[in-house]
UniProtKB/TrEMBL annotation, chain A:
It comes from Pontibacillus marinus BH030004 = DSM 16465. It holds the Pfam family SBP_bac_1. Residues 1-18 form the signal peptide. SUPFAM superfamilies: Periplasmic binding protein-like II. This is ABC transporter substrate-binding protein. Keywords: Signal. PROSITE patterns: PROKAR_LIPOPROTEIN.
UniProtKB/TrEMBL annotation, chain C:
Gene3D superfamilies: MetI-like (1.10.3720.10). The chain crosses the membrane at residues 12-33, 73-96, 108-129, 141-158, 243-262. It comes from the Bacteria. Its main location: membrane. It comes from Pontibacillus marinus BH030004 = DSM 16465. This is ABC transporter permease. Keywords: Cell membrane, Membrane, Transmembrane, Transmembrane helix, Transport. PANTHER family: ABC TRANSPORTER PERMEASE PROTEIN MG189-RELATED, ABC TRANSPORTER PERMEASE PROTEIN MG189-RELATED-RELATED. One of its GO terms (biological process) is transmembrane transport. It is a multi-pass membrane protein. It is found in: Cell membrane. SUPFAM superfamilies: MetI-like. InterPro entries: MetI-like (IPR000515), MetI-like_sf (IPR035906).
Amino acid sequence: MNQKKVMKLWMAFMTVFALFIAGCSDESSGKGGDDSSATEITLGFYSSGSADEKMQELIDKFEEQHPDIKIKTQNAPYQQFFQKLDTQIAGGTAPDVWLSDGVFVQKYAERGAAKDLTEWINQDLNKDDYYGLDFNKGPNGSYWAVPQGIQIASLFYNKDMFDKAGVDYPDESWTWEDLKEAGAKLTIDTSGKTANESGFKSNSVNQYGLTFFSITEGWMTVLKSYGGGILDDSLKQSIIDTPENKKAMEYIVDGMDRGIFTDPSDLQAFQSAMSPFPSETAAMRIGIYARVLAANETGVNYDVTVLPKGPDGERFSPVIANSWIINNDASDKKAKAAWEWVKYWVSEDDVQKEWAELGEAVPVKKSVAQSDMFLNSGDKPANKQAFLDSFEFAGTLDVNAVWSEWVKKTGDNFNRAFLKEASIEEALERADKEVQKVLDEFYENQ
Amino acid sequence: MVSPYLIHFIVFIAFTLLASLYFSFSRYDMLNAPQWIGLENYNKLINDPVFWKSLWNTVYFTVLFVPTQTILALILAVALNQSLKGLKFFRIAHFIPVISSWTVVLYVADAIFNPRFGLANDLLVKMGSQPQQWLNDEALVIPVLVAVAVWKGIGYMMVIFLAGLQNVPEDLYEAAEVEGAGILKKFRHVTVPLISGTTFLVLVLSTITTFQAFEQIYVMTGNSGDITAAGGPNNASMVLMLYLFQQGFAFLKMGYASAIAWVLFLILFVITLIQVKMQKKWVHYEK
Amino acid sequence: MKKNPNKRRKIISYIVITFSAMIMLTPFITATFNSLKTYKQYTAIPVEYIPNPFRWQNYVEVWRMTDFAQYGWNSFIVTVLSVLGALLSCSMVAYAFARLDFPFKNSLFIMVLGTLMIPPVVMIIPQFIIFKHMGALDTLVPLWILEWLAQPFGVFLMRQAFLSIPKEYEEAAKLDGCSPLQTYWRIFMPMCKPQLATLTIFTFMTKWNEIMAPAIYLSSQEKFTLPIGVLSMSGAWFGKEQYLVAAALMSLIPILIVFFFTEKFFVKGASSSGLK
């Protein structure tokens, strides 16, 4: 009897509760319903501080130009954005169009989450006008995404430190060996000794020659300019265990051993791998374009030049085209509206210029990137042309559908070599085996 | 009266369990519908060295963490279970880490274990020893994480013990004293048996939660929340939950991740059974 | 005779506790100093412990550049609703398990224990789908609603507590004409204040500090709770990482204040047992 009463009470409570929740949901889903003529699309992007405001401004302008399209935004910081995106795709709630880190485009493409944009691109865009379209091309020639902004690397150097040490600024004639030689003079320990002097303590360095970080701004760049690399052209075969890579690794490990390059545990000490250069704890860095933001903010006196050559004169600059992806599940109407947004983004000069003003990426539209507005804006670095010159020898990071996974396997093994917990041969051999396994597992099931 | 639990069970547990069980026999990347592949995930699991390593790490972490925390917490609780001056201050001091989130602990612990400017290395060097890499050292990473976990959790365990101790009637101690028992004897023969119920609860809970702990490792070893970087160096701090999460969410192998989850579930089930058996043997319930 | 061992015990206790309190507090003090430095001084070797000068503007900057008040409010809502839900639902279910008879009681309880062992990550995707159908994505609802449905930990904890209450109380209540519900509310609940306090603290801490669920369910910045609000700041200030320390410590302040004023409830409340 009494138990029943309690049950009833609880049930009543739960009903109220359910109504309450339903109330909440109505509120959130009812918003767009009043204006049935407009297409509402959801736009997802990862936030980066000041850029969010600009993005909203550009969205407002877009809505003015396209009264029939309404944009709802969904943004989160980088890590959270991508973690949630996967769950959203699974749950069918992903945005209709989203900004993807260039290295994830293939992950979505090869798993069928991205819409094939080849036809629309051929129809609406003149490919020669833009940087980076080809960096998102799948192995079968389809285009899966349209670049939003380009990240390409060059060599950043701190002019004050070079002046103080009496070392000539780097230029396009430098090889990686030249860089290390100059770096040795720029590496200073707590007692003021440089890396070339006897009694130099490589475990208490106050100023590093080069900050060296992970794949893009670290090993991939060196490996490729030494003629090595990670995957072959098919992107399904590992080519890690090669003499070229071994030579490149020997170069890196020696630099770390002598304290000239930051090793993985040095970087952890600085809280962020990005911080040694802007905080003037390192004289040089391999940096993608976005790194000018932090350097400008802290007011470092620096410039950039193209990355050094390998022993055979080969050069490599990693490039990442962060891109708009249209959801493969979006209805035709929404996909078309999303495409309007993408077109607006890349083709409108104003949009390209306003975004470029943030200094966060190299503009996608070549005419804007090559204009005074970008090259001679008065902001550092003076030699922005170096970024554009780098397109000549630019390459992607062997991006495929299992990129994050093989990067982890490679990185873990390389780090062991960097910290001298494994020999270079051992690290290359193990990385090769593990990466091949990752590739086989995925592609055999395709 | 069990209806809330029933709703919980039917809607949120039974459904999700069946779904995840199905996933564990499928190839499922979250973006496409799951595809039945039978036992393949489990087969792969047996041959996956990282899985075995993370299982070992999980056990190692738990074995190091649970007894250390339990014993230290009990000692502190006994010390605090009396009228002392400044009692409030001491309790607050031990509770601040408890109420801190792992995000806070990340930066607070870094003040100690930063390989460059941390207090620990500074002291080591001043005492003439070699500085250590702490979280970057394959051998030290788990002990350091355990130390931080004990530091964070001990105040909470202490409170549970304190509540248990205060249920021990004072006259029992007085009786023991009349019989001439010293501090240690009283502890062994009065305190321990009477709080064995509390101790059991503490042990069961901390074993289970430790086996599933991963926020700490995710936050402290992952470079600013990067799930693929967590568990390093070279998987030395990779635990099952983290591995599961990484496989599922970073590499989109939800099927494989679900298989790991089920193995983890089985292990926990066995552990709990053993603990329940043990409970009958040595817990003294007050009659 | 009696005073001597007591005095010795006190001295030993003081030594133990003072030492351990130092270990507890030193990291916070060091971190607080770190948060008041320039980045240069923060990463300097040899280490400079005392900031020079004390840069209080670090905190001002962090406050200015982030949405702290909003994060704090969100955390507060989630935590309060969770604690209320846990206290009510867990104790009711536990009471049923401890004192009432109903079909499949034992197998149900084994299931409670079993669900305690299920790694929560397994359920993320299916639960995500459920919440999607409820229209609860990007709201705070998924973060607290499960607490209203009796989480196994609380049930387990409360059942242990109820089991230790002597049957005589119940029988006395029955003689006075109390229904099971009244017995539960008037007798069992007041007698289990320590465990209720423990459950409060436990739920409070878990929810206040939760990282995974908010990261998955919340997408708008204005809905963020404190821990992911702070976590999302890493990467916002390259070369000024001492700001992150300041942000982290700032996120601790509200809970520290709450704790300071309710410390009696948090800790001592746990000892005002109904058994005495």
